[in-house]
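Appendix B, example 12.
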Amino acid sequence: MARGNVVVTGASTGIGEATALRLAGEGFDVFAGVRKASDGERLRGAGVRPLIVDVTDEAAIAAAADEVAAATGGAGVQGLVNNAGIAVSGPLEYVPVDEWRRQLEVNLIGQVAVIQRFLPLVRAGHGRIVNVSSIGGRIALPLAGPYAASKFALEAISDTLRRETRGQGIDVCLIEPGGVKTPIWDKGLSEADALEAAMPAEGEALYGKLIAAMRREVTRIATDTGIEPDEVAAKIVDALTARRPKTRYLVGRDAKTRWAAAKRLSDRTLDALIARTLKP
């Protein structure tokens, strides 16, 4: 794909920030979606144009799309990278329904809202849409139900959109990382701690050991085993620039290993393997 205009949501930190910076370095004109003006100014200094947008606010999304349309004229956008996301975790039995709604509002409904507003610009630019999913969109782990549900759903809408726009010259790709060293883990752990504190004593008795084991694994990802955000950003650039892009890009050894196991093992065997990994 020729270099041109690209919009990246969730660009304040982590994968989104790395993607915005890498795309700018590759010669793209990047609109980096952020929620805070301070994050936008920091990115502006790196040659990226900040775009204030909250994916849960339809008016903000509409204003951002209008801003991009005015800045690009009839050229449209050559890439839309939907990366904004949060991670809600905890035992399905005890995660408040409002937290489920918040998870889906950001990771699913927000992505659909952005796609709806920006799709005419992508069509005008003969561009591509790249949705940042997760290996959690293929394999659901314990205590990650809300997050996995949002990513499984994102996979579904990506397949739907790709098939709906097949005759319009628009390609839709999914990026499916494993563990990545990003602030999402720190935020997720902090919120998980609050949810755990609100659980009744029975919840702690039922799930306490599993929660401790998962917290240990998440901490290892954030500090040791996770890949760097720029490794994911490189795959996003590949998806935007390849002559014939893949529909899905698994990123990271853990993502590839987990999917290889899932394809070969029965559900029960995979359940046992995951349980062994999470033994106290």
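The CA atoms of residues 36 and 52 lie 7 Å apart. The longest strand covers residues 171-177.
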